[in-house]
């Protein structure tokens, strides 16, 4: 097990070229784990990929010295256990209803509640809140904020840079969430400036 684990999370909008670029960027930066939302469905196969039931969220191991345990896939999220924490990759479509968003969080809650280790929950939640950098809070942002407080979770995002950029507009919909008791161990969090071939930016952090 490496002492510091380097992670990139990103929604690649299903793009094959975006996946190629992500893998090349990860290799250059010596990244250990990728957390991918809206991956290229036909390509997330093989023993180094973990994928949810809908192929909307994935985890890829790039460092062979890291071991994944107790892998579990749900609808819209996939999780695995490492030595000191549980890692999730999540995706929530912007097109689902508020009721379905609440149902998604209920399913995620059941998984998180079963864990005996701190959790790091990364993904595209398509929720806006001033708490993580948005100019306004939408209904899904309100629901997610209440959910975070109810389960002793915190958002790592600094809110300084948008995680989604389209033209001249940006938003903060890609989140790094964690148990409060592991928040201080997540370091070097930042939105990267590198090209992604996606509207979403790479998020980098170390644990």
TrEMBL record:
Pfam family membership, one: Exo_endo_phos_2
GO molecular function list: catalytic activity
Residue span(s) of domain Endonuclease/exonuclease/phosphatase: 87-204
InterPro entries, A to Z: Endo/exonu/phosph_ase_sf, Endo/exonuclease/phosphatase
Coiled coil: none
SUPFAM superfamilies from the UniProt entry: DNase I-like
Name of the protein in question: Uncharacterized protein LOC103521281
Gene name, Swiss-Prot/TrEMBL: LOC103521281
